[in-house]
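Lab notebook page, bench 4
Experiment: in silico fold of construct C2
Operator: M.H.
Input chain length: 493 residues
Purpose: comparison with the prior construct
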Amino acid sequence: MIAHLPALQVVIPLISAPLCALLPAGRPAWLAAMAASWLAFLIAALLLYQVLAHGPISYLMGGWPIPWGIEYRVDALNAYMLLIVAAIGAAVASFGRTIVEQRLSLPLNKHPWFYTAYLLCLTGLLGITVTGDAFNVFVFLEISALSSYVLISVGRDRRALVAAYQYLIMGTVGATFILIGIGLLYVMTGTLNMGDLAARLPAVSGTRTVRAAFAFLTVGTAIKLALFPLHLWLPNAYAYAPSPVTAFLAATATKVAIYVMLRFFFTVFGVKFSFETMQLDKILLPLSLVGIASASLVAIFQTNVKRMLAYSSVAQIGYMMLGVSLVSVTGLTASISHLFNHALMKGTLFMALGCVSYRVGATRLERMAGVGRSMPWTMGAFVIGGLSLIGVPLTAGFVSKWYLIVGALEKGWWPVAALVLATSLLAVIYIGRVVEVAYFKPAPEGQRVEEAPLALLVPTWALALANLYFGLETSLNVGVARLAAQGLLGATP
C-alpha cells in the first residue's frame, strides 16, 4: 500500500466524489467528503516524510515506462505543495457542513452535489501537484477549474453567478494558453513527461516554437495565479462564493498555479533559458511590485471584508512572484515558504469571516460593529490571521517576509526591500479597519450576536494556532522550502 501512495493521493478523493452524490443529504455526504479529505492529508504527510527520508519518488501509472506512460513524481517541492493543499482541504471539510446547510442557494437535497464538486476540485489540485506529465497537468487543471466554477456559483448572493462566469471566461483563456504551450512543446520534443522534456528541450531551445510555447505558458499560468494585471477574476470570485469555498480556493488554487509556473520554468525550461535567455525576471519583477502596491492600496478602501482580503491576496501573490524574480535560493525559499504561510493566514481569515457571516449574515464592515465583544473567539482567530498577514514577528507571515527582504538585500535591491516593508504597513491599515469596527464601535441597537458554534471554531483556531506555531518552529515551512528551492536552482544543499 505504501508504494501506491502517489496514486492513492488522487484516487481516493476522485472515487469519493461520485459516492457523495449518491449519499443522502446532510451528515452522510459530509462525512464521506471529510473522510476523503483527511485521508488525502494523511497520504500527503506520509509522502513528504518519505521524500525527506529517502529522496524523490517515481510512480509509473500502470507500470508503463517513461515516456509512454504517465509518471507521478514526488520531490521536495510537490510533496510540500501536496501537504498544503491536503491540510487546507481537511480543515475546510471539517469547517464546511454548518455553513453549507445555511448559506447555499441549493435546496437541501442538492447539497451532496456540493461535496461532489468540492472533492473534484481537491482531486484536480492534488493531481496537478503530483503528476510528472505535462498534459496531465492540463487535465487536472480543468477538473479543478470546472468544479471551482460550480462551487463559486452556489453562493446565496446572485452576484456569485456573475463572479463564476467571469472566472470561467478568464480561466478558460488561461487554460487554453497553457494547452497551446504544452502542445508546442510536444511538437518539438515528441514527449510530455516533464523530466524527458527537460532533457530534450536544450537541443531545440533556440527555435521560435519553443519561445512561443514559453510565452503561452507564461501568460496562461499568470492568469491562473492572478498575477497583476491578470487578476480581475479574483476579487468577485472570493467575495461572493460561500465562505468555505473562499477559504479553500484562496488558500490552495492560486498556490497550485504558482507551483505550475515554478515547475515549468525551473524544471522543464531550466533556469538558464527562463531567466537568462527569455529574461522572465524582467517581466515578473515590475508586475510583482506594482501588484503589491496597487492591490494593498485598493484593499484599504473596500467595505466588504471578503473583497478586502481578496485584494490582499493579489498583493500576497505579488510577494511570492517577487521572490521568484530574485532567482536565488533565498528568494525562492521566501516564495515557497510564503505559499505555505499564506495558505494558513488566508485560511484562518476567511474561515473567521465564515463564522461572522454565519451569525451576522454578512461580511460588510458596518455589519461587523461590536462583534469583537460578542464573538471574542472568532475575532481572536481573525486578529491572529491578520497579524500573520501583516508580518508581525512570532507569526508565520513574518518568516517568509523576512526571507524576502533578505533575498532583496542580497541582490542590493534596497528600494525593493523598502517597498516590502511599506506595503506591510498598508496591511496594518486595512486589517486595523476591521479590528477598529469589531472592537471599538458599538453594536447596532437591538442586535444580539452569539459566538460561532464549536464546529466552526475548532478548525478556524487550528489554522490560527498553526500561524503561531510555524512562526516559531520553521523546520517545515522554511526547511523544506529551502530544500525545494535548492532543487529548483540545481544548488547543492
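Observations: The mean pLDDT is 87. The beta strands are 57-60, 71-74.
Next step: discuss at group meeting.
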